[in-house]
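Reopening this one. Same input as before:
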Amino acid sequence: MLIRDHINLQGANPLSGPNDDRFGVRFPDMTHAYAKSYRELAREEASKLGMTLHEGIYGAMLGPSYETPAEIQYLRTIGADLVGMSTVFEVIAARHMGIKVLAISCVTNMAAGIVDQPLSHQEVMETGERVRLSFEALLRAVLPRVESDKAIAG
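Same output, byte for byte:
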């Protein structure tokens, strides 16, 4: 899934504390945290590979426990399409430094309450391994286009 935006519910922000102006402004704008142009080129490359990439909003939770069914219901209500425990801190830091961001998340399991079975890290690892080659192919197609875009913009 292409990440279009995020909801940070991790209870922290990587920019907390004193700001180092060498890296960016104290209060960076997050309106376009995920570059639309990069999402478009990712969709183009996915299409060439016969893949369909969905797009949505990432709900970031602290973890390491999986969410409860009530938390998943809450996340849906506030607009999250998927949930995870990573990505958002890196995106905030990158945008602070003025770096354009493309984020692609591999959805590895159904959330609590969606299916009536326990969640396990083993399932996440197995799904990741099952889709690894396809995901690698997508990255191999997308990354040169991102690098080319950086050269043009730079």
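So the earlier flakiness isn't reproducible anymore. For the record, The beta strands are 2-8, 55-60, 82-84.
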